[in-house]
Design a protein that fits this description.
The structure is a homotetramer. Chain A has helices at about 5-10, 15-30, 30-35, 70-85, and strands at about 40-45, 50-55, 90-100, 110-120, 120-130, 135-145. By secondary structure, chain A is an alpha+beta fold. Chain A has one domain (about 5-145): Hotdog Thioesterase (Thiol Ester Dehydrase, Chain A). The first copy, chain A, has a six-stranded antiparallel beta sheet with strand order 1-2-4-5-6-3. In chain A, about 50% of the residues are buried. Chains in contact: A-B, A-C, A-D, B-C, B-D, C-D.
Chain lengths: ~160, ~160, ~160, ~160
C-alpha cells in the first residue's frame, strides 16, 4: 500500500473506522426502537459498538427491577450495531443472555459488543452490560447471519 | 367473586389453576414494562402462560422490522408469568432465543410458555412466539431460579 | 429387500421415511465416534432420530457421574441424525445443553431429536435425553446449517 | 503483604494458585473420562484451566471430522476444572457451544477456560477451543452451580 492509498484510507469511506461510524449514525437515525428507549450510540469501530440506556420507570417489571427484556434489547442493539459495522447487512440469528445482577430505576446501563469470530456468513459476538458502577448486569452471546451483499447505509 | 366461591376454599387458593390465574392478574397489575408494551395475559395455568402483543411503530428497528429485543421481551414476560405460576417467587437466570422469521408492524405476536422441568430451585421453560397466521417468529428457552420461599402475590 | 419392494420405487427412495432410514443406516456405518461409544440408532423418521447409549466406566468424571460431554455427544449424534434425515448434508452450527440430573454407570440413556423449524438453510432441533426410568437427564437445543446441495448417503 | 506471608502463600493450601493446581491434579487423577480421551491438564489458576487433547480416529463422525461431542467434552472438562479451581464442589448447569471450524484427525485441540462472573452459587465461564495453528474451533459459554460447601479434593 503506498502513501496515497493510505491518505485516502484515513479519510475515505473505505476506512473501516469511518465506515463503522457512518453505519452507527445511519442505523440509529432509522431505528425507532433504540431511539424510543432512550439509547445512545457512544462508540463505533470495526466489529465493535458501545451503547447506553437509562432504566426508566416504564421498564420495570412487577418486582420493581428492570425487565430482562429491556436489558436484552439494549444488548441486542449493541450486537446489531457491531455486526453491521462493516456496512454489510447482517441480522441476529440467535442470542443467549445470562442475567447476572438486577438493574434498578435510574441505573445507566452500558452495553459493549465485540466480534469474536466471522466465518462465511456467520459471526459470533459478545456483549457485556454493566451499570454506572461497572458491575456486570448481563452477558449476551449472539450469532449473526450476513445477508447477500447489501449495504446497511449509503456511504 | 361471591361468597360461594369463598366458601369453596378447599379448591380455592390451594387449587393450582386458581393460584396461577391470581398470580397472572396480580403480577400484570404491577408490571409497568409489560403493560407499557401493550401486552395482555391471555391464559394462565400451572407452569404455563400465554401472552400477546401487537408490533407498534416504536418497536421497529432500522431495517423496519420488529427489534428482536421486543420479541424477546414478550417471550421473557411469558416465561416470567409461567415460572411464577405456583406463586413462588422466581427469576430468569438465563434465556436463549432463536429468531426464526421477522415480525412486522401491526403483527399480533402470541407467546406461549411451558415448563419442561423443575428440579430443586432450577426450572427449564420453552416459549414459542408465533404471529397471527401461526408462523413461528422466535423460540426461547429459559432457565429459572426460584428464590427462598416468598410468594409473588398475596392470595 | 425383495423385488416387490424394489418395484415400489415411487414409494422407494423418494419416500421420506425410507430416505430417513437409509440415511440413519448409512451415516452410522461411517460414524466411528458414535459406534465407539456404543450408541445404537433405534429409530429414524423425517426430522426425527432416536439413539441410545449405556454409560460405561470410561465415561465417568472425577465425581463418578457421567461426564456431561458424553451426554452431550449422545444428544449431538441424535441431533445430527435428525437434521440429515432428508439426505441433505447438514452440520451443527450451535448447541445449548441444560443438564437436569446426573447419569450413573450402567444407565441406559435415550436421546430423542425432533425438528422444530427449518427455514432456508437453518434448522432448529430439540433433543431430550432420558434414562431407563424415563427421568430427564438433559435437554439440548441445536441450530443446524445445511450445506450446498449434497447428499449424505447414496440412495 | 510481608515476606513471611508471601512465603506461607507459596507453600500453603490457602494460596489460591496452589489450591488450583492441587485441584487440577486431584480431579484429573479421578477423571476416567478425561483420561480416556487422552486429555492433559496443561495449566491451572484461580478461575482458570487449560486442557488439550488430540483428535483420534475414534473421535471422527461419518463426515470424517471430529464429532462435535468430543470437542464439547474437551471444552466441558476445561470448564469443570476452572469452576472447581477454588476447591469448592461445582457442577455444570448448562453449556452453549458455537462450532466455528471443523477439527481433523491428528489436530491438537487446546481449550482455555476463564471465569467471567461468580455471584452466589452461580458462575459464568467462557471456554475457547483452538487447534495447533491457533484457529478457533469452538466457543463454549457455561453456567456453573456450586453445591453446598464441599471440597473437591483433600488439601
Amino acid at each position: 500500500m503506498d502513501d496515497t492509498t493510505r491518505l485516502n484510507d484515513t479519510i475515505g469511506p473505505q476506512d473501516p473506522q469511518t465506515i463503522a461510524e457512518r453505519v452507527g449514525a445511519g442505523m440509529f437515525a432509522e431505528d425507532a426502537a433504540s431511539q424510543g428507549l432512550g439509547m445512545s450510540v457512544d462508540a463505533m469501530a470495526p466489529g465493535y459498538a458501545r451503547l447506553s440506556m437509562s432504566v426508566r420507570p416504564d421498564m420495570l417489571n412487577g418486582f420493581k427491577i428492570c425487565h430482562g427484556g429491556f436489558i436484552t434489547t439494549l444488548a441486542d442493539s449493541a450486537f446489531a450495531f457491531a455486526c453491521n459495522s462493516a456496512n454489510r447487512l447482517t441480522v441476529a440469528a440467535a442470542i443467549a443472555v445470562d442475567f447476572i445482577a438486577p438493574a434498578h430505576e435510574g441505573d445507566r446501563l452500558i452495553a459493549e459488543a465485540k466480534e469474536l469470530t466471522q466465518a462465511g456468513r456467520s459471526g459470533i459476538y459478545d456483549v457485556k452490560v454493566v451499570n454506572q458502577r461497572g458491575e456486570t448486569i448481563a452477558l449476551l452471546r449472539g450469532r449473526s447471519h450476513r445477508l447477500k451483499d447489501q449495504p446497511v447505509v449509503p456511504l
